[in-house]
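Hi there, hope your week has been kind to you so far. Thanks so much in advance, here it is:
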Amino acid sequence: MRVVRVVRVVVAAMVVALGAGGAGPANPPPPACADGQVRAVWIATVQNIDWPSRPGLPAADQQREYRALLDEVQRLGLNTVIVQVRPTADALWPSPYEPWSHWLTGRQGADPGYDPLAFLVEEAHARGLRFHAWFNPFRVSRQADPAQLVPDHPARRHPERVFAYGGQLYYDPGRPDVRDFVVDVVLDVARRYPVDGVHFDDYFYPYPVEGEELPDAGTFAEFGSGFTDVGDWRRHNVDELVRATSQRLAALDRDIEFGISPFGIWRNRSADPRGSATTGTQSYDTTYADTLTWVREGLVDYVVPQIYWEIGHPAADYAALVPWWADAVAGTPVRLYTGQAAYKVGSSPAWDDGELAEHLALDRAHPEVRGAVFFSARSLTTNAAAAMERVWSDQYVC
């Protein structure tokens, strides 16, 4: 069983004055409360959602944008960044396994002229922020043609390892060599960079596409010995990835946390008496993510369920899901952080500027909840700027 480590929250004094036109409090806040709570934000690089703002920016501009982003993170009293370093089977560091990301340079395999990951970690640590490296395990490309990848891409050199589904290209989780390769990529970062954590998102098997079957019947025939149900086999494959990652990280000679952010519903109670009082998509049956097993076996240090619904939502009520997840981790050393949909603020009347603060107030009624993670960084200064100011003033000021 993995030894779950205590998060060492390092909080720096907030000394950056609010720039003209920026979001957040009018004056630099005092240091965040040293209450052990993780206050984090996801920084997405796929499709240039958060950083850099577009492919092909000069290195100096990329660095300037990231520093400005961290300034905002500090100003809002956050203490952790979860940065996507492998968005589509590519790399934001000089990887011996995969090509440079085209989200950086505009051309896959093109050297950006510096080591972005080293810079990203160093800048975060200089501000007292913890840095978790975020990996998308199996997505190869957001288009389905392997010929569009650079010629030496592993997915082109090993076409047997990939399949196309829903207009995108994926590594096949059912192949042991694929899972070994993914873990090798993760461990390359964990060994070479002083990251505080390794983070997987919710994309394991791809989300279902209407009218399409996952093209893994041949893989099941080759590697599914001992399984009569393809769903059980797929969950086993994901479990094996999580288990191998956990074990290899734990074997390192330094402390690196391992966390996963699954879709917010494990299973509905109508499908499983252990499930939640919800009626939405079930990660257990769609992406084949059995989070309860990972928690109960101690394979992760923390989970961040993406509870991206408002309080009172008819199919997936935030007020019903938080206690369910709290019960899921109760009695285990696994830490629970709630995933917050900052991107939804302003999208409907339910998502007004007070919704996020109300979520965190509800969280405080459940001691198992040890923090929150906001998706994503761009929203902090755009649609969710006023909402995050409410979060700061209502929840993050001692």
